[in-house]
Amino acid sequence: MLGGRFFMMNTNLATVIPFYREKSSLHSLEVDGTEVQKFIKKPPISTKMECLYNEEQIRLVHKILADKVEKATTINKEKVAMRNLTMFICGINIGLRGGDFCSLKWNQVFDDGWIIKKKESFAPEKTTKKDEYGNIFKRKIIILRYDSDFRMAITNWYNWLVDHNKEPKLDDYIFPSNKNECMTEKSWYKVMETTRKEAGIKQKIGTHGLRKTYGHSYYLAAKDKSQALVQLMMIFRHADMRTTLDYICISDEEIFENQERMCVFSNGEDDFILNN
Predict the structure, then answer these.
(1) Which of 160, 24, 157, 23 is nearest to 88 (CA)?
(2) What is the spatial distance between Cα 102 and Cα 263, in angstroms, rounded to a whole number?
Protein backbone atom coordinates (compact mmCIF):
# COMPACT_ATOMS: atom_id res chain seq x y z
CA MET A 1 0.00 0.00 0.00
CA LEU A 2 1.38 3.38 -0.99
CA GLY A 3 -0.34 6.62 0.06
CA GLY A 4 -3.75 4.97 0.27
CA ARG A 5 -3.30 3.29 -3.17
CA PHE A 6 -2.41 -0.20 -4.30
CA PHE A 7 -0.60 -1.10 -7.50
CA MET A 8 -0.96 -4.37 -9.39
CA MET A 9 1.07 -5.33 -12.44
CA ASN A 10 -0.97 -6.31 -15.47
CA THR A 11 1.59 -8.25 -17.48
CA ASN A 12 -0.66 -8.50 -20.54
CA LEU A 13 -0.72 -4.74 -20.89
CA ALA A 14 2.86 -4.31 -19.70
CA THR A 15 1.84 -1.42 -17.48
CA VAL A 16 0.87 -0.58 -13.95
CA ILE A 17 -2.84 -0.13 -13.28
CA PRO A 18 -3.65 1.75 -10.07
CA PHE A 19 -6.17 0.57 -7.49
CA TYR A 20 -7.68 2.74 -4.80
CA ARG A 21 -9.60 2.23 -1.58
CA GLU A 22 -13.07 3.68 -1.42
CA LYS A 23 -14.87 3.27 1.91
CA SER A 24 -14.46 -0.43 2.77
CA SER A 25 -14.27 -1.80 -0.75
CA LEU A 26 -11.35 -2.21 -3.14
CA HIS A 27 -12.06 -0.91 -6.61
CA SER A 28 -10.08 -1.22 -9.82
CA LEU A 29 -9.91 1.68 -12.23
CA GLU A 30 -11.41 0.69 -15.55
CA VAL A 31 -8.89 1.55 -18.22
CA ASP A 32 -9.42 0.95 -21.92
CA GLY A 33 -6.65 0.38 -24.45
CA THR A 34 -6.21 4.07 -25.11
CA GLU A 35 -6.00 5.05 -21.46
CA VAL A 36 -3.49 2.28 -20.75
CA GLN A 37 -0.97 4.04 -22.96
CA LYS A 38 -0.96 6.97 -20.56
CA PHE A 39 0.41 4.74 -17.82
CA ILE A 40 3.23 3.28 -19.91
CA LYS A 41 6.46 5.05 -19.13
CA LYS A 42 8.54 5.23 -22.27
CA PRO A 43 12.32 5.26 -21.91
CA PRO A 44 13.66 8.82 -22.06
CA ILE A 45 15.12 9.97 -25.34
CA SER A 46 18.51 11.60 -24.88
CA THR A 47 18.63 15.21 -26.05
CA LYS A 48 22.23 15.80 -25.00
CA MET A 49 24.35 17.23 -27.77
CA GLU A 50 27.94 16.11 -28.13
CA CYS A 51 30.78 17.65 -30.10
CA LEU A 52 32.86 16.70 -33.11
CA TYR A 53 35.73 15.02 -31.34
CA ASN A 54 38.57 15.37 -33.82
CA GLU A 55 39.73 16.93 -37.07
CA GLU A 56 38.62 13.87 -39.05
CA GLN A 57 35.00 14.29 -37.93
CA ILE A 58 35.13 18.03 -38.62
CA ARG A 59 36.44 17.39 -42.13
CA LEU A 60 33.77 14.75 -42.81
CA VAL A 61 30.99 17.23 -42.05
CA HIS A 62 32.81 19.95 -44.01
CA LYS A 63 33.06 17.69 -47.07
CA ILE A 64 29.32 16.97 -47.10
CA LEU A 65 28.54 20.70 -46.99
CA ALA A 66 31.23 21.64 -49.54
CA ASP A 67 30.04 18.93 -51.97
CA LYS A 68 26.53 20.41 -51.87
CA VAL A 69 27.96 23.75 -52.98
CA GLU A 70 29.76 22.09 -55.90
CA LYS A 71 26.75 19.98 -56.94
CA ALA A 72 24.10 22.71 -56.65
CA THR A 73 21.98 22.88 -59.81
CA THR A 74 20.53 26.36 -59.30
CA ILE A 75 21.83 29.66 -57.94
CA ASN A 76 19.36 29.53 -55.05
CA LYS A 77 20.46 26.02 -54.06
CA GLU A 78 24.09 27.09 -54.28
CA LYS A 79 23.34 30.09 -52.08
CA VAL A 80 21.74 27.89 -49.41
CA ALA A 81 24.61 25.41 -49.59
CA MET A 82 27.21 28.19 -49.38
CA ARG A 83 25.42 29.73 -46.41
CA ASN A 84 25.33 26.38 -44.60
CA LEU A 85 29.03 25.74 -45.26
CA THR A 86 29.89 29.20 -43.95
CA MET A 87 27.72 28.70 -40.86
CA PHE A 88 29.47 25.44 -40.03
CA ILE A 89 32.99 26.85 -40.29
CA CYS A 90 32.07 30.01 -38.39
CA GLY A 91 30.03 28.12 -35.79
CA ILE A 92 32.90 25.90 -34.65
CA ASN A 93 35.24 28.89 -34.51
CA ILE A 94 33.17 31.33 -32.46
CA GLY A 95 31.38 29.24 -29.82
CA LEU A 96 28.06 31.11 -29.69
CA ARG A 97 24.73 29.54 -28.75
CA GLY A 98 22.59 28.63 -31.74
CA GLY A 99 20.07 31.45 -31.47
CA ASP A 100 22.71 34.14 -30.98
CA PHE A 101 24.77 32.76 -33.86
CA CYS A 102 21.86 32.65 -36.31
CA SER A 103 20.94 36.27 -35.55
CA LEU A 104 24.40 37.75 -36.22
CA LYS A 105 24.48 40.78 -38.51
CA TRP A 106 27.24 41.98 -40.81
CA ASN A 107 27.89 45.07 -38.67
CA GLN A 108 28.87 42.81 -35.78
CA VAL A 109 31.74 41.42 -37.85
CA PHE A 110 32.65 44.31 -40.18
CA ASP A 111 33.13 48.01 -39.48
CA ASP A 112 31.54 50.80 -41.55
CA GLY A 113 34.26 50.48 -44.19
CA TRP A 114 33.68 46.74 -44.55
CA ILE A 115 36.94 45.92 -42.80
CA ILE A 116 36.63 42.85 -40.63
CA LYS A 117 36.96 43.55 -36.92
CA LYS A 118 39.38 41.77 -34.62
CA LYS A 119 36.80 41.51 -31.88
CA GLU A 120 33.30 42.64 -30.94
CA SER A 121 31.40 43.10 -27.68
CA PHE A 122 28.27 40.96 -27.64
CA ALA A 123 25.37 40.42 -25.23
CA PRO A 124 24.00 36.85 -25.49
CA GLU A 125 20.21 36.65 -25.43
CA LYS A 126 20.22 34.11 -22.60
CA THR A 127 22.14 36.47 -20.30
CA THR A 128 19.98 39.51 -21.08
CA LYS A 129 17.29 40.11 -18.45
CA LYS A 130 14.31 42.41 -19.06
CA ASP A 131 11.61 43.74 -16.77
CA GLU A 132 7.87 43.54 -17.45
CA TYR A 133 8.08 46.63 -19.64
CA GLY A 134 10.85 45.22 -21.84
CA ASN A 135 13.61 47.35 -20.34
CA ILE A 136 16.99 45.65 -19.94
CA PHE A 137 18.16 45.67 -16.33
CA LYS A 138 20.88 43.01 -16.47
CA ARG A 139 23.13 41.58 -19.15
CA LYS A 140 26.46 39.84 -19.49
CA ILE A 141 28.88 40.99 -22.16
CA ILE A 142 31.19 38.59 -23.95
CA ILE A 143 33.91 39.31 -26.50
CA LEU A 144 33.68 37.73 -29.93
CA ARG A 145 37.09 37.08 -31.48
CA TYR A 146 37.32 36.24 -35.16
CA ASP A 147 40.11 33.77 -35.94
CA SER A 148 41.54 33.07 -39.42
CA ASP A 149 39.10 30.25 -40.27
CA PHE A 150 36.16 32.47 -39.34
CA ARG A 151 37.55 35.41 -41.35
CA MET A 152 38.22 33.18 -44.37
CA ALA A 153 34.72 31.68 -44.37
CA ILE A 154 32.87 34.97 -43.82
CA THR A 155 34.94 36.68 -46.54
CA ASN A 156 34.21 33.90 -49.04
CA TRP A 157 30.50 34.15 -48.20
CA TYR A 158 30.50 37.93 -48.71
CA ASN A 159 32.37 37.61 -52.02
CA TRP A 160 29.94 34.95 -53.24
CA LEU A 161 27.00 37.27 -52.52
CA VAL A 162 28.65 40.19 -54.31
CA ASP A 163 29.60 38.03 -57.31
CA HIS A 164 25.95 36.97 -57.64
CA ASN A 165 24.52 40.50 -57.33
CA LYS A 166 23.31 39.94 -53.78
CA GLU A 167 25.56 42.45 -52.01
CA PRO A 168 24.49 42.68 -48.36
CA LYS A 169 24.04 45.77 -46.21
CA LEU A 170 25.74 46.13 -42.85
CA ASP A 171 22.42 45.84 -41.01
CA ASP A 172 21.42 42.63 -42.81
CA TYR A 173 21.54 39.21 -41.18
CA ILE A 174 24.65 37.29 -42.20
CA PHE A 175 22.77 34.00 -42.44
CA PRO A 176 19.28 34.75 -43.80
CA SER A 177 16.50 32.27 -44.48
CA ASN A 178 15.01 31.90 -47.94
CA LYS A 179 12.63 34.71 -46.96
CA ASN A 180 15.61 36.97 -46.09
CA GLU A 181 14.68 36.82 -42.42
CA CYS A 182 16.89 35.61 -39.62
CA MET A 183 17.49 31.88 -40.02
CA THR A 184 15.91 30.13 -37.05
CA GLU A 185 17.86 27.96 -34.67
CA LYS A 186 15.38 25.15 -35.36
CA SER A 187 16.17 25.27 -39.09
CA TRP A 188 19.90 25.33 -38.43
CA TYR A 189 19.51 22.39 -36.05
CA LYS A 190 17.82 20.34 -38.81
CA VAL A 191 20.61 21.20 -41.25
CA MET A 192 23.30 20.08 -38.84
CA GLU A 193 21.56 16.87 -37.81
CA THR A 194 20.92 15.90 -41.45
CA THR A 195 24.51 16.69 -42.38
CA ARG A 196 26.17 14.80 -39.54
CA LYS A 197 24.08 11.71 -40.38
CA GLU A 198 25.17 11.95 -44.02
CA ALA A 199 28.76 12.24 -42.80
CA GLY A 200 28.41 9.08 -40.72
CA ILE A 201 28.73 10.88 -37.38
CA LYS A 202 26.83 8.83 -34.79
CA GLN A 203 26.59 11.32 -31.91
CA LYS A 204 23.99 14.10 -31.94
CA ILE A 205 25.46 17.50 -32.77
CA GLY A 206 22.60 19.88 -33.44
CA THR A 207 23.52 23.53 -32.96
CA HIS A 208 24.79 23.29 -29.39
CA GLY A 209 27.31 20.67 -30.46
CA LEU A 210 29.08 23.30 -32.58
CA ARG A 211 29.55 25.41 -29.46
CA LYS A 212 30.91 22.36 -27.67
CA THR A 213 33.18 21.59 -30.64
CA TYR A 214 34.65 25.06 -30.23
CA GLY A 215 35.34 24.37 -26.53
CA HIS A 216 36.75 20.91 -27.21
CA SER A 217 39.07 22.12 -29.98
CA TYR A 218 40.17 25.13 -27.93
CA TYR A 219 41.06 22.92 -24.98
CA LEU A 220 43.00 20.41 -27.05
CA ALA A 221 44.90 23.13 -28.90
CA ALA A 222 46.05 24.82 -25.68
CA LYS A 223 49.51 24.09 -24.30
CA ASP A 224 48.38 24.90 -20.77
CA LYS A 225 45.17 22.96 -20.19
CA SER A 226 44.46 24.50 -16.78
CA GLN A 227 44.71 27.98 -18.22
CA ALA A 228 42.52 26.93 -21.15
CA LEU A 229 39.73 25.86 -18.76
CA VAL A 230 39.80 29.26 -17.06
CA GLN A 231 39.75 31.01 -20.42
CA LEU A 232 36.82 28.91 -21.62
CA MET A 233 34.90 29.76 -18.45
CA MET A 234 35.37 33.42 -19.35
CA ILE A 235 34.46 32.88 -23.00
CA PHE A 236 31.30 30.94 -22.20
CA ARG A 237 30.50 33.08 -19.15
CA HIS A 238 30.08 30.00 -16.99
CA ALA A 239 29.78 30.42 -13.23
CA ASP A 240 30.84 26.85 -12.51
CA MET A 241 33.90 25.01 -13.79
CA ARG A 242 31.88 21.77 -13.93
CA THR A 243 29.69 23.27 -16.64
CA THR A 244 32.79 24.11 -18.67
CA LEU A 245 34.18 20.60 -18.18
CA ASP A 246 30.92 19.20 -19.56
CA TYR A 247 31.17 21.51 -22.57
CA ILE A 248 34.63 20.39 -23.67
CA CYS A 249 33.48 16.77 -24.14
CA ILE A 250 36.66 15.02 -23.07
CA SER A 251 36.34 11.40 -24.19
CA ASP A 252 37.47 8.23 -22.40
CA GLU A 253 40.06 7.69 -25.12
CA GLU A 254 41.60 11.11 -24.51
CA ILE A 255 41.65 10.50 -20.76
CA PHE A 256 43.40 7.16 -21.33
CA GLU A 257 45.96 8.76 -23.67
CA ASN A 258 46.75 11.36 -21.02
CA GLN A 259 46.99 8.65 -18.39
CA GLU A 260 49.46 6.76 -20.59
CA ARG A 261 51.64 9.87 -20.79
CA MET A 262 51.99 9.66 -17.02
CA CYS A 263 53.71 6.27 -17.22
CA VAL A 264 57.36 6.35 -16.18
CA PHE A 265 58.63 2.76 -16.22
CA SER A 266 57.04 0.93 -19.17
CA ASN A 267 59.01 2.87 -21.84
CA GLY A 268 55.99 3.15 -24.09
CA GLU A 269 55.46 -0.61 -24.38
CA ASP A 270 51.94 -2.01 -24.22
CA ASP A 271 52.42 -5.67 -25.22
CA PHE A 272 53.02 -7.52 -22.00
CA ILE A 273 53.21 -11.36 -22.07
CA LEU A 274 52.57 -13.69 -19.17
CA ASN A 275 55.05 -16.53 -18.58
CA ASN A 276 53.28 -19.88 -18.49
Answers:
(1) 157
(2) 46
